[in-house]
Design a protein that fits this description.
The complex is a heterodimer of chains A (about 60) and B (about 450).
Chain A (H helix, E strand, L loop, with lengths): L9 E4 L3 E2 L5 H14 L6 H6 L9
Chain B lengths: L1 H36 L4 H76 L4 E6 L4 E3 L2 E10 L5 E12 L2 E7 L2 E3 L4 E8 L15 E7 L5 E4 L7 E3 L1 H4 L8 H11 L11 H6 L10 E8 L9 H14 L4 E2 L6 E6 L2 E12 L3 E7 L3 E2 L10 E5 H21 L4 E9 L8 E6 L17 H6 L7
Parallel strand pairs in B: 17-19
Antiparallel strand pairs in B: 1-3, 2-3, 3-7, 4-5, 4-6, 4-8, 5-7, 8-9, 9-10, 11-15, 11-18, 12-13, 13-14, 14-15, 16-17
Helix pairs in contact in B: 1-2, 6-7
Classes of the chains: A alpha+beta (about 60), B alpha+beta (about 450).
Chain lengths: ~60, ~450
């Protein structure tokens, strides 16, 4: 299923974190946004399969 | 006394009645005796005695009536006395009630008087002529002064002013002001101002909010001497009774929003920018210190970053000791075409990599080649840079950082058109999710539903 539109560039400046934290949540957010850019909606299982803890319901 | 007289009369009446009955019985007995002794005169004597008894009974009845009248009078008088007593009691109760009301009003007056005596009154005693800009935020400096006689708690200032075609709202941090005290505060531009604070519509518009020590909330329009006050009693009406300004002030004070993150430095913003021309589809991971510094990285920062860059990309080389860019050698010279790392003021660490897209079969009728985005390798690369770059930041003295990600989906160098994502190599491989697959994890990936 090829989307008719041009896939848009994507960029995100995230909030700041203490240096001890690994911001795994940003990967969830980023993958979700990109998959939705390609037209996918139900992406939780895919994100988990990529090894990223999922914040359900985003 | 009335009661005693009634009792006495009752006794007298009873004695009279008993005496009369005894008298009648005596007369009857006498008549019976005479009738038996003198039968010749018995008829006349009996009639006479009966007449005497009748008269006696009539007289007795009259006496009883007279006595009853006295008793009724006494009873009526007693009832009237009781009524008078009841009225006196009621009047006494009324007086007590009035005294209680008066006492309550006195207490209220006393409390109001005390609150007035210790009421704060905050004014803007000085304000900068213009709004200035700090780190891309509009700010205005001012001085708040408490000219009232009580402490002003949680005092903050709000100003809405014109900004371009719209408006912006500046809010100062809450301060506590003792009587006569003043504080220099800075009102900062808010990203998400509360909309219901103001009643006035004129721009600019300003408000001062503060609480007194009795938990009353005050809202004052500078230059107007009559503050709106939301008392503790008003507050018992619940949230539904709150006017907008009270709700807004409470939200600012008690659901205090975190301070906005300091803005990013220019190197970070440039690194994640996706506007402009790019040779190839590529992705960028950027990490900057928060707040960022404009100072050039030190030699030790450079050396630590250099060691890490060589592990991330073997074969990468530092461009020069002044230009802290790491690139790959291509055709005898360094080039950032496929990959590039940077260390810039902030410090800001950036790694950019061209994406190796997964091309689709060439269309039979010609046309632009299409390709899929290698999602798994992209995510793994992001993880690698984040997991390696954050410890480097810590080792060069950074305590707080901000990540940034960018994905450029087009390129000017004969790039195929990006049309889909590819999970090749992943356990959730979309390519393997065709009919007949038996891996449950792959089946799970079939839940991907493309929204149309």
């Amino acid at each position: 299923m090829v989307p008719a539109h041009q896939i848009q560039d994507w960029s995100q400046r995230f909030v700041s974190f203490d240096i001890g934290e690994f911001p795994m949540g940003i990967l969830d957010y980023a993958v979700r946004r990109i998959l939705r850019t390609f037209g996918y909606q139900e992406v939780d299982d895919v994100i988990e399969a990529l090894g990223i803890p999922v914040k359900r319901g985003n | 006394m009335t009661k005693r007289r009634g009792v006495l009369r009752g006794w007298v009446l009873a004695v009279v009645i008993l005496a009369a009955i005894a008298g009648v019985l005596l007369v009857i007995d006498v008549s019976i005796v005479l009738a038996s002794l003198f039968p010749t005169i018995s008829t006349a004597l009996a009639a006479m005695i009966t007449g005497i008894a009748t008269l006696t009974l009539a007289g007795l009845t009259g006496v009883i009536i007279i006595f009853n009248a006295g008793v009724l009078t006494a009873t009526r008088e007693a009832a009237e006395a009781t009524q008078a007593e009841a009225e006196a009691t009621k009047a006494e109760a009324d007086a007590t009630h009035e005294a209680a009301v008066a006492t309550r009003e006195q207490v209220t007056e006393l409390r109001i008087s005390r609150q007035l005596e210790f009421r704060p009154f905050v004014v803007v005693s000085a304000m900068a002529d213009a709004t200035r800009t700090v780190d891309q935020y509009a700010v205005r400096d001012l001085t708040l002064r408490n000219v009232g006689r009580g402490p002003a708690l949680n005092t903050f200032f709000v100003r809405e002013e014109r900004s371009g075609p719209g408006t912006r709202v500046l809010t100062s941090e809450p301060v506590n002001l003792s009587p006569g005290a003043s504080a220099d505060v800075t009102a900062w531009e808010q990203e998400d101002p509360h909309p219901a604070l103001f009643d006035r519509v004129d721009i600019p518009r300003e408000l001062i909010f503060y609480q007194d020590q009795f938990a009353n909330m005050h809202r004052l329009v500078p230059s107007f001497l009559e503050p709106a006050i939301w008392t503790r009693e008003d507050d018992e009406g619940g949230m539904s009774a709150e006017p907008g300004w009270v709700r807004g002030a409470k939200e600012i004070l008690f659901a205090h929003r975190p301070e906005p993150d300091p803005p990013s430095g220019p190197y970070f913003m440039t690194a994640i920018a996706v506007s402009g021309q790019f040779g190839a589809c590529q992705s960028t991971v950027a990490l900057e210190a928060v707040p960022p510094s404009g100072v050039r990285p030190t030699d030790s920062m450079r050396d630590r970053t250099d060691r890490w860059m060589l592990t991330v990309k073997p074969g990468a080389r530092l461009l020069t000791l002044d230009v802290l860019h790491w690139q790959l050698e291509m055709n005898g010279q360094l080039s950032g075409e496929k990959w590039e790392g940077r260390l810039e003021p902030g410090p800001t660490i950036t790694v950019r990599q061209a994406l190796e897209l997964h091309p689709r079969p060439e269309p039979a009728g010609g046309g632009q080649i299409e390709a899929d985005l290698p999602m798994l390798s992209l995510v793994n690369w992001w993880k690698q840079i984040l997991e390696g770059g954050i410890p480097v930041l810590r080792e060069i003295g950074v305590t707080r950082f901000r990540p940034g990600l960018a994905l450029v989906t087009r390129g000017s160098w004969k790039q195929p058109r990006l049309v889909d994502v590819d999970f090749n190599g992943s356990t959730a491989s979309r390519k393997a999710c065709g009919p007949g697959t038996s891996d449950p994890r792959l089946v799970a990936a079939l839940r991907i539903v493309r929204h149309r």
